[in-house]
Design a protein that fits this description.
Layout (H helix, E strand, L loop, with lengths): L3 H8 L7 E7 L5 E7 L5 E2 L4 E2 L5 H10 L4 H12 L18 E2 L2 H8 L3 H13 L3 E5 L2 E4 L9 H13 L12 H22 L18
Antiparallel strand pairs: 1-2, 3-4, 5-7, 6-7
Helix pairs in contact: 3-5, 4-5
């Protein structure tokens, strides 16, 4: 006697390393099960596919959904591209693989943006844990999001991120950039108001004694 469970087990596809099972509706109330090669960990930084991410499509979907200035998206793309050893404008000999040696001025030149237009998104991406400052002038992008290297190198960089107590990665809601900017503006106003409320104590002036010149 053949049970339904045994029949279903015989029909299940064989899943090999690097593959995944995908279930889709056939549009008629049924379900189609297939095996596909995992491609979500690939992330394009140039004409060739390099690096690994948890899901490149998820990352690009998040970036496309966030209501943020276009300059922010531009800054992030330039930082991702700067991980490529062959990327122009970045001296890779001065930073270990997995890291980007770049300062605000260099980033301004790569993006053709003002200092303020580069500084704000840099602070935002630090805030949501998409990158950290390893040391002055050297950045590490979150290796769980994107990194130009092999899977073994990615694992190594993840350990380095954890050892440095890098911030936890946040997948922000579409309106979060605007909320973050509003909170920063509010905090700035409160700080300025507090400074204005501070009492200024005037120090008494000392009168200087002048000697009368003798005739």
């Amino acid at each position: 006697m053949i049970f339904l469970e045994d029949l279903l087990m015989e029909q299940l596809p064989i899943v090999r390393p690097g593959q995944r099972v995908v279930a889709r509706s056939d549009g008629k109330g049924g379900m189609v099960v297939s095996v596909e090669k995992i491609k979500g960990r690939e992330f394009a930084v140039s004409a060739q596919l390099k690096g690994y991410v948890l899901d490149a499509r998820l990352l690009m979907d998040v970036l496309g959904s966030m209501k943020m200035p276009g300059s922010w998206f531009q800054v992030w793309c330039k930082l991702v591209a700067a991980q490529d050893p062959g990327y122009h404008g970045v001296d890779r000999t001065k930073a270990p693989r997995g890291y980007v040696r770049i300062n605000q001025r260099d980033l301004q030149q790569l993006c053709s943006l003002s200092a303020a237009s580069v500084s704000e998104p840099s602070q935002f991406f630090h805030h949501i844990g998409w990158m950290r400052t390893a040391k002055p002038g050297v950045l590490q992008l979150n290796p769980w999001l994107t990194v130009a290297g092999t899977s073994a190198e990615q694992e190594e960089w993840q350990k380095e991120w954890n050892a440095a107590k890098g911030p936890a990665c946040v997948i922000p809601a579409p309106d979060y950039p605007a909320e973050w900017r509003a909170e920063r503006a509010k905090a700035k106003k409160e700080t300025e108001a507090a400074r204005r409320r501070e009492k200024v104590v005037a120090l008494p002036r000392r009168r200087q004694a002048f000697r009368q010149a003798s005739a």
